[in-house]
Amino acid sequence: DTGVSQNPRHKITKRGQNVTFRCDPISEHNRLYWYRQTLGQGPEFLTYFQNEAQLEKSRLLSDRFSAERPKGSFSTLEIQRTEQGDSAMYLCASSPPGLADTDTQYFGPGTRLTVL
Amino acid sequence: DQQVKQNSPSLSVQEGRISILNCDYTNSMFDYFLWYKKYPAEGPTFLISISSIKDKNEDGRFTVFLNKSAKHLSLHIVPSQPGDSAVYFCAASTGFNKFYFGSGTKLNVKP
């Protein structure tokens, strides 16, 4: 297994269009996170899944954003009616079960969204 | 909702010297802290972590110190190498459900 993968790596869209991103976590990892990162800032938490259950959701995740993880494996993040302010890097991360000291989040390379 | 802060946007250090990156947090409920390193066009890469029951954790050239009373976290890199040049993020969590990241410190290690 080569790590967390995200597709597409880049997406350019026009304002008002819908976009969907996919994240494939590391295979044994039951925890999956989505973040958004803008220039000069750290990643901002969007949502967290444990298996297929969405357990945490940020206020940043407006009604235009929805995330799913239907079978507890890959996840999708959809943005409806995109706005220019949605332009950012969208990062996915996964973690194994348990809370050992060595546990951490493993990040994918991100999907860069540009809304024109 | 800036619960984790990195007040130094950049740091420049000579190769071979110590790099000290700092991080402050406001939520006393955080029980797990992590440092990440990020190169351009890549996702963050995990460096080192510490749980709130410890005050120090070492891994090779990297040491993280936690001062719970001051709500302060620091990362020491000794000796610094040019390959360490990157943006460093600290992050904090309660129970691994939600992570808060600082805004990052760009480290430049000069040869």
Q: Please, could you describe this protein's structure?
A:
The complex is a heterodimer of chains A (116) and B (111). Chain A is mainly beta. Chain A has no helices and 11 strands. In chain A, strands 2, 4, 5, 6, 9, 10 and 11 form a 7-stranded mixed sheet that branches. Chain A has a 4-stranded antiparallel sheet with strand order 1-3-8-7, with no helix packed on it. Chain A is globular. Chain B has no helices and 11 strands. In chain B, the strands form 2 sheets. In chain B, strands 2, 4, 5, 9, 10 and 11 form a 6-stranded mixed sheet that branches. Chain B has a 5-stranded antiparallel sheet with strand order 1-3-8-7-6, with no helix packed on it. Chain B is globular, with a radius of gyration of 13 Å. The termini of chain B are far apart. The A-B interface holds A 4, 31, 33, 35, 40-45, 48, 55-56, 58, 91, 93, 95, 99, 101-110 and B 4, 6, 9, 32, 34, 36, 41-46, 49-51, 57, 89, 91, 95-104.
- Helix percentage range of chain B: under 10%
Q: Residue-averaged pLDDT of chain B, rounded? A: 94
Can you count the beta strands of chain A?
11
Oligomer designation: heterodimer
H/E topology pattern of chain B: EEEEEEEEEEE
Regions with little confidence, pLDDT below 50 for 5+ residues of chain B: none
SSE string of chain A, helix = H, strand = E? EEEEEEEEEEE
β-strand percent of chain A reads over 45%
- Termini gap of chain B: 38 Å
The Cα radius of gyration of chain B reads: 13 Å
The secondary-structure class of chain A comes to mainly beta
Number of helices of chain A: 0
Strand content of chain B: over 45%
User: Helix segment count of chain B?
Assistant: 0
